[in-house]
Amino acid sequence: MVPLSYYLIFAALLFCIGLFGVLARRNAIVILMGIELMLNAVNINLIAFWRYRTPEIVTGMAFAVMVFAVAAAEVAVGLALFISIYRRRKTVTADEIDMLKW
Amino acid sequence: MTIDTLVWLIPVPPVLAFFLIVLFTNRSKPLSHIIAVGAAALSWLAVLVVVTQALQIDHLGQHPIESQIPWLPTGDTWYLIGILVDPLTVGTLFFVAWTIFMIFIYSVGYQNYGQPKGDHDQPGLPPHGKTVEDQNGHKFKIPSIEPLYSRFFAFLGLFAFGMYVLVVSDNLLTLFIGWEIMGLCSYLLIGFWYAKLSARAAMIKAFITTRVGDMFLLLGIVYLYTMTGTLTFREIFTTETLHMLADTPSGFLGLSAAAVMGILIFIGVIGKSAQWPLHVWLPDAMEGPTPVSAMIHAATMVSAGVYLVIRMYPLLSAGAEHGGVTPPMMAMAVIGTFTGLFAATIAVAQNDVKRVLAYSTISQLGYMIAALGVGAYVAAAFHLINHAFFKALLFLGSGSVIHGMEHGLLHTGDDVDPQDMFNMGGLRKKMPITFWTFLIGGLALSGFPLVTAGFWSKDEILADAYTHRQWLVFGTLAFAALLTAFYTMRQITLTFLGKPRSKSAEHAVESKWTMTVPLIILSFFGITAGWVNIPETFPILGRLVPNFFHDFIAETLAEHPEAVTFNWVPLLTSVVVSLGGLYLGWMVYRRVKEGAEDPLEKPLGPVFTLLKNKYYFDELYDFLFVRPAKWLAGTFTYLWMDRTAIDGILHGLARIAYALGGIFRNWIDKPIVNGFGDAVGDVVKRLGHSFRYIQTGRVQQYMVMALVIAFGALFYYLFRFFIP
Which residue of chain B has the CA closest to A23? Predict the structure, then answer.
């Protein structure tokens, strides 16, 4: 059986790819995709720890399902926001969406 | 309805009229006077029924009509108020009801009901007349209606209420309430034309002067209540109570309690009945409309004073042995006699038709007081009733004269004083009804023998004084009677006889029926009111005319005063002074020409000036009381106490507080409190300035920052907990 550490390393890699996408890409939709990657990395961790540590209770799976639901809702809201921003400012570039500036 | 219920109801209609007029009908002049006159008529009718019923009761003095109700809780007991109709009340009610009713009717005419509104009339001023034009285009003025017509009737109603309450009361408290209501109404009515400065001054003078007396009266009432625990007449006038009061020393000048009470009550009467030295308000009260003068000087207020002393006579005379004189009676004899003469002398030198009557009233009231002082109880009551009738008649007559003169004044556009008798003359032909009724009143006042009411009552007072051997009183009153006849004839001669002395007098016209009918009715009483008390011992007439009055009134007292036996000396005296005075008055004044001065002015010289100026009493009081009071108020209280002392203290306190406030402000508030607050604000502001540069508005930079901080925190904890 594949040892737990493999899963954890894979998840960490996936998280870093997602984090890079969030921090480095300018397109807001890509940033959103990065966030999805990070969430999924977390999900892998949850499932892995569940399978290896406490397979007798379903907490890990349940938590992962909860994260899916939150991610789906987040995407729905995030995309709706981007569409709205695009309509007003004709762009989805993160650098240009700086109305909160002082 | 039983008779005592009816007595309770006597005062009610006038006060209802007052409230109805004030609250509802004051905009409608006809409605107001209908209500007021109707109310006076109702009371008058009730009085007539009560008087008729009371006269049918045998020995009314012992069995008066009375009823009481509990009014005020006084500890465990109740203060009872009630009504009492004894012979004295019957007599008083009779003249009060007649005169009040007549005055109400007369007021309708006097205040020019039915005339148009004036051109420039203003509330608070007498009406000035309205200009009209006849067919030929000739312009002239006619009288105009009083602007405050409704208000006048409302006040009259309240006044009548006060008088009726006073007369039917069976106790001193409700009597005092009626007394004070009249005081208020006299104030309101004297100042009825309140826009006139003189009327305002007169109203204040009347109110304050009578207030001086009322204060003492109240003290007397309080003392009486403290001593006896009751104010009901029938309870005070029991033999035991009177003896108790007469035997208790008051600790004041060695007088008995009864004497002190008597004197205090008498001082109240001095104020109300305008006796010397509180007489000054009454002549000035002539500023009011003439019906008011009649109301105050005949029917109601001044009579109320004499009514009170007659009512309180058992107390005033308590402690006197047979024929003896108590200190209050002594005071009354002295003041009454003095006032009788004093006022009569002033009346001789007055030119204002109403002022002569005012002083004559003071003088006649002095007669009544003096009569009581010598123990002539019945004579005083008798003169009170007669005087009310003929003095009301004279006042209303003088009002009619003034009215006629004002008519002439408006018609001709003349500019003379319509009340000055030297501008009149010859009015006999212009105003016949007024002349004849005034003549009857005047003759009654001067005591024209045998026919008039005044003769019988005045004669009885003189006879009483003579029989009681009060020579000084007798002599003085006889001399005053001479003067009375003299000035009355002077007034009649100057006003009605001879030739007109001004254009206004030439154009005077007789007054309307609303004014002349009351005159005729009152002149009927001015003659006949005297016939009820012709002494039985009087030659011939005494046997012809039955005398029921003396015994009737005398029954009011527990000890019936005996009628004095007939004596020729007082009779001849009163006949001589009356006829002599009348003759002298006619002789001196029958030939006064237009613009002439008073024929007495030359021969009397400075005495005449003294009389004309009323012995300078107004000036004396001005010097003694008014100016010190003004100085006290203006200089002492206002300038020294108020402005200097009290204001000074207050201003000083304020200045200290202001300085302290300054110190606190500059040393504590500004540097510490404000400084701290400002510093907090500054620091926050500067911090904000410094930190605003991290607020880039870029999401990814925020994210980086969050990550850096998160990792920083993570590493911190890792090192802290896992690497010891």
Answer: B700
Distance from CA of B686 to the nearest CA of A (A): 15
Phi, psi of A28 (to 5 degrees): -65, -35
The SS3 call for residue B724 is: coil
**In chain B, residues 693-722 whose CB comes closer than 8 Å to chain A:** 693, 695-700, 703-704, 707
Q: 3-state DSSP call for residue B508?
A: coil
Helix (H) or strand (E) holding B555: none
Residue ranges of the domains in chain B? 3-111+146-612
What is the model's pLDDT at position A102?
A: 55
Tell me which chain B residue has its CA closest to the CA of residue A21.
B700
Predicted pLDDT at A80: 93
Per-residue pLDDT at B515? 86
pLDDT of residue B403: 85
Residue B703 and residue A23: Cβ atoms within 8 Å? yes
Does the beta carbon of A102 lie under 8 angstroms from any beta carbon of chain B?
A: yes
How many other β-carbons are positioned within 10 Å of the β-carbon of residue B235?
A: 14
No. of helices (H) and no. of strands (E), chain A: 3, 0
Distance CA B153, CA B131 (A): 26
Task: Return d(Cα A55, Cα A49) in angstroms, integer.
Answer: 9
**Residue numbers in chain A where pLDDT is lower than 70:** 100-102
What per-residue confidence (pLDDT) applies to B41?
Answer: 94
Residue B697 and residue A23: Cβ atoms within 8 Å?
no
Mean pLDDT by 10 residues, chain B (724 residues): 85 93 87 91 92 84 84 84 89 91 89 81 81 78 84 91 92 91 90 89 90 91 88 86 82 82 90 86 85 78 89 84 75 90 88 88 90 86 90 89 85 79 82 90 86 84 84 88 90 85 81 87 86 76 74 76 77 86 85 77 79 82 86 87 90 94 91 92 92 80 88 90 74
- Residue B328: is the preceding peptide bond cis (ω within 30°)? no
Contact status of B689 with chain A (Cβ, < 8 Å): no
Peptide bond into B277 cis (omega under 30): yes
Q: What is residue B136's predicted lDDT score, i.e. its pLDDT?
A: 78
- Domains along the sequence of chain A with CATH: 4-90 (1.10.287.3510)
User: Using CB atoms and an 8 Å cut-off, which of residues 30-89 of chain A contact chain B?
Assistant: 31
Put simply, the answer to whether B697 touches A101 (Cβ < 8 Å) is yes
Q: Is A27 touching B (CB cutoff 8 A)? A: no
How many helices (DSSP H) and strands (DSSP E) are in chain B? 33, 6
Q: Which of A20, A38, A95, A96 to mutate to test the interface with B (most CBs of B within 10 A)?
A: A95
B194 three-state secondary structure: coil
Test A99 with B703 for CB contact under 8 angstroms: no
Amino acid identity of residue B650, one-letter, is: L
Which of A23, A99, A101 is closest, CB to CB, to B700? A23
ipTM of the complex: 0.77
Q: What does the pLDDT read at residue B39?
A: 93
Quote the longest CA-to-CA distance of chain A: 55
Q: Which chain A residues are Cβ-neighbours of B704 within 8 angstroms?
A: 23
Within 8 A of B699 by CB-CB distance, chain A residues are 31, 94, 97
- On chain B, the residues whose CB falls within 8 A of the CB of A100 are 695, 697
Q: Which residues pair with B141 in a beta bridge?
A: B131
Given this model, what pLDDT does residue B138 score?
78
Alpha-carbon gap, residue B702 to B17, rounded angstroms: 93
Out of B693, B695, B698, closest to residue A94 by CB: B698
The CA distances from residue B515 to B36, B290, B403, B456, B535, in Å, are: 16, 12, 10, 28, 35
Q: Please tell me chain B's helix, strand, coil percentages from 3-state DSSP, rounded to the nearest 5.
A: 70, 5, 25
SS3 B698: coil
In this prediction the pTM is 0.76
